[in-house]
Amino acid sequence: MKANLNLKTKEPIKKLNLEPTTPKHKYTTSFLSPVSLISTSDSTFSLSPKVPTTQKIPQSTKSKPSFSSFLSPNTSKNTLNPKHNHAVSHQFPINPASPRPVKTPYKDHDKDKIMWNSLEFPLTPEEVLKNFKQHLTQDEYEEILSFSEIFFIGIGVKKIEGASLRKKRFDDEEYNYRVTIGDHIAYRYEILQILGSGSFGKVVKVLDHKSKQYFAMKIIKNQTRFHEQARDEIEILNYLKSHDPDKSYCIIHFIDHIQFRNHICLIFELLYINLYQFIKLNNYQSIPMNRIKKFALQILQALRLLDRYKVIHCDLKPENILLRSSDSIDIKVIDFGSACFYDKRIYTYIQSRFYRAPEVILGLEYSTAIDMWSFGCILIEMFTGKPIFPGENEMELLQCMMEVLGSPPLKVISKAVRRNLYFEADGRPKIQANTKGRKRIPNSRPIKDIIRRSEDGFQELILQCFEWDQNKRITPDEALLLPWFSDSNELFGEKQMKV
């Protein structure tokens, strides 16, 4: 590839040194897994709580606190709690497996990478086709013409060849996008790492070559029902964003969305590990109470915004609460893929099982109160290190609740559409053994015994989260007024919580 390409360059192109020590891509960095960042040091991708993670971060001269300082002092070896059956992180696993990019047979791709990085962007499709056509597939020759600005094309990456774009060759057998590390999304974003996957599709870490920022991109499956769900999620995210202009309500910042090769892609700020992973790193031991209080305050901020504007999250759990960075315990609530407005409550099977509210199990109409039930479950899990209601199915889940809280009031049972599945005609619960032969007897493991070693304010909050009657359950606004949170300003220093 010759240097005289008739393209604008950042500066006059100097004689290129093409020895084996060819420099890395301009924006290449060493991407470490969250585990390797636990003991924080100044590195290319260390995250500072004072600066948004989507911005270029200057080197700090101050020493940062070790991530382990946020955990229990007696934390040692991490082992998987076999009772924690729900703990499959579909968002950001601790050790995401990311295959390395496969290089093309074209021998001069290193030269072309250097040439590409010396240019002024954006390029036009015509400029790319004239000078870098060898790095595109035949389908991309046509596809690239529909993009007005080109920032990245994935030079040196083996791309998917084969049938026509119309035959969904970019989809796997489960309609997920076939992710290739190092390739482009929409000729702008570089795929760096697979962060996680779920029923919705995949989450990848990307570098935006236009803004030079890192983001998390949620790539939705190429199926009609997932497209519809993604559009609902986008509507809710934009609605919440419009009511949280200064980003003070601890909800993940939604950047934008695009559609590429029939896949809807949602772009978010890049965050750190989730709360379940934090609990796992703490060896499933009790998190210090002052840390629990800080987490609780921030989750309530998010729930307060949702409750005010009648949005139900419908899937609040530790995996959907992410730490903002490796050296901070600021958190964000994520994943609004199951969320709904009050006037669009069309699903009856919602919430992850361990965090499912009783009204959902019983077939009653639900509200934002189901999120407060899930919130209570999360608080207990941080305190004990394991889920409080680990039911194998909905029958045992309800029995787990009665084991801890006693039987629900007859007033609640009488209104339940599905009461005959779980209760006798006189309101007595139907007791069934689980697969291990265990029977859970109502009130045999009282909630007060589980939390008796905690602070009084914590106990007060938990008891009000676990009200059988959702109309009596505490709201986010009421919770924030409890005496336990009276020192919120001291907890967060200069950062003022909205109360």
TrEMBL record:
Residues 60-73 have a biased composition (Low complexity). Its EC number is 2.7.12.1. Residues 1-25, 43-104 are annotated as: Disordered. ATP binds at K218. SUPFAM superfamilies: Protein kinase-like (PK-like). GO terms for molecular function: ATP binding; protein serine/threonine kinase activity; protein serine/threonine/tyrosine kinase activity. Residues 8-17 have a biased composition (Basic and acidic residues). Residues 189-485 form the Protein kinase domain. InterPro entries: DYRK, Kinase-like_dom_sf, Prot_kinase_dom, Protein_kinase_ATP_BS, Ser/Thr_kinase_AS, Ser_Thr_dual-spec_kinase. Keywords: ATP-binding, Kinase, Nucleotide-binding, Serine/threonine-protein kinase, Transferase. Belongs to the protein kinase superfamily. CMGC Ser/Thr protein kinase family. MNB/DYRK subfamily. This is dual-specificity kinase. It comes from Stentor coeruleus.
